[in-house]
Design goal:
The protein is mainly alpha-helical. The chain has one domain: Cytochrome C Oxidase, Chain A (Up-down Bundle). The protein contains 16 helices and four strands. The strands form two sheets. It has a two-stranded antiparallel ribbon. It is globular, with a radius of gyration of 20 Å.
């Protein structure tokens, strides 16, 4: 048995297990609307909303609830009395299912909106109660992240503005991923202890601010050329911040769990650059529309980062190392290939069917990895290679 592992069996013994599995299953099923258009009266709108509220929402829940015990331990509240229990977790899963049913309903009546908001609001409450009790005030913004995701999803439902949703996703990944990716790299390289909080360099903060300005200019109605130039600046900043990451020595290349994180992250500067070029130089690119280019952010960045983070919970472990299995490698490769094909085949026959098949197959393979992990003890911490005390 793994040191620092939970020996109990069952789906509900750790919060990430049901939520990560829901995210993976939903990621595999939602794109099928492009292969079977009769599944929805509004396939574009439903697909966009479920990518954010269903897929990303469940993945966010699994990640945040897995990180919560570590935050409380850092604050000296390791007794676990304030952590969500089995019934609370089951209630969250039921709220997630209710949200999926609500999204399928047309209109914006109060009952539909309440159904959509049940899971993200419940998730925020599950985080806020222990965080406030432990007086972890610096964790309040991330505890409210599910509410931000809800706002993005509702805005997409009301306005259909895919650019706003994509930029908000990019900003969220930049803020959260910009901390966890270098932290995982540094911890593996021995530059910091896994318990320490990685400081965010000034360059990283500036890159995030520029990206936030791009989102603000788009929302304020300023000409999109301005937004495009901000996105180009944000792209350069997000790429430049990697210079300070501990990538020397080929560490990420030798260990696939780290390679997944870095490759997925690269879609952030790439997606911002493609979107910025399209907005700053309208008419200069033929054959690529804005909705197509945004898939670099939604499929490559969001899908890749979620898969790379969730896969860590189901990888086998050696001392200080996470061992990606063949299933993890195949799943990640298929998701990345589907993104490349979605961009490359734009405007051609099969532009949707072929990348959709690769995406769904990749997530189906990952579902197999996640189900296989249900039979093994839950390691602590869930997402890193560090071991708990004997």
């Amino acid at each position: 048995m793994l040191v620092g592992a939970t020996p109990e069996k069952g789906l509900w013994r750790a919060p990430h297990l049901p939520l990560f599995l829901l995210a993976a299953v939903w990621a595999a099923l939602v794109p099928l609307v492009w292969l079977f258009p009769g599944l929805s009266d509004d396939p574009v709108g439903w697909h966009r909303q479920e990518l954010i509220l269903g897929f990303a929402g469940a993945a966010m829940g699994g990640y945040l609830l897995s990180a919560l015990p570590h935050w409380l331990k850092q604050a000296g509240h390791a007794d676990g009395r304030q952590l969500p229990r089995k019934r609370a977790l089951q209630s969250l899963v039921l709220a997630w299912i209710a949200g999926r049913l609500a999204v399928m309903q047309p209109g914006t009546d109060a009952i539909t909106l309440c159904g959509i908001g049940l899971f993200p609001l419940g998730l925020s409450a599950s985080l806020l109660i222990p965080i406030v009790s432990a007086r972890l005030w610096r964790r309040l913004p991330i505890a409210l992240a599910p509410v931000g995701l809800l706002i993005v999803g509702l805005d997409l439902r009301l306005t259909g503005d895919g650019l706003t949703a994509a930029l908000a996703i990019a900003l969220l990944v930049a803020v959260v991923g910009g901390r966890i990716v270098p932290a995982f790299l540094a911890a593996r390289a021995g530059h910091m202890a896994p318990q320490r909080r990685m400081p965010l360099p000034l360059g990283g903060r500036l890159a995030d601010v520029i990206l936030a300005l791009a989102l603000a200019t788009h929302l304020s109605g300023i000409p999109e050329r301005v937004t495009g130039w901000f996105l180009l600046g944000a792209s350069a900043g997000q790429a430049a911040r990697m210079v300070r990451w501990p990538l020397s020595g080929g560490l990420a290349g030798r260990q696939f769990d780290l390679s997944m994180l870095v490759i997925a992250w690269l879609w952030l500067p790439a997606g911002l650059a493609l979107t910025g070029l399209l907005l700053a130089f309208p008419g200069a690119f033929t054959g690529h529309s804005l909705p197509t280019v945004l898939h670099a952010v939604t499929m490559g960045l969001l899908g890749g980062m979620i898969l790379a983070v969730m896969a860590r919970a189901s990888m086998r472990r050696a001392p200080g190392v996470l061992l990606a299995g063949a299933g993890h490698r195949i799943a990640f490769a298929l998701v990345m290939l589907s993104t490349l094909l979605r961009l490359a085949l734009s405007g051609l026959p099969g532009a949707l069917a072929i990348p959709t098949l690769f995406w769904c197959l990749g997530w189906a393979v990952f579902c197999g990895c996640a189900i296989g992990a249900l039979r093994r003890p839950v390691p602590h911490p869930v997402l890193s290679a560090a071991r708990g005390p004997r």
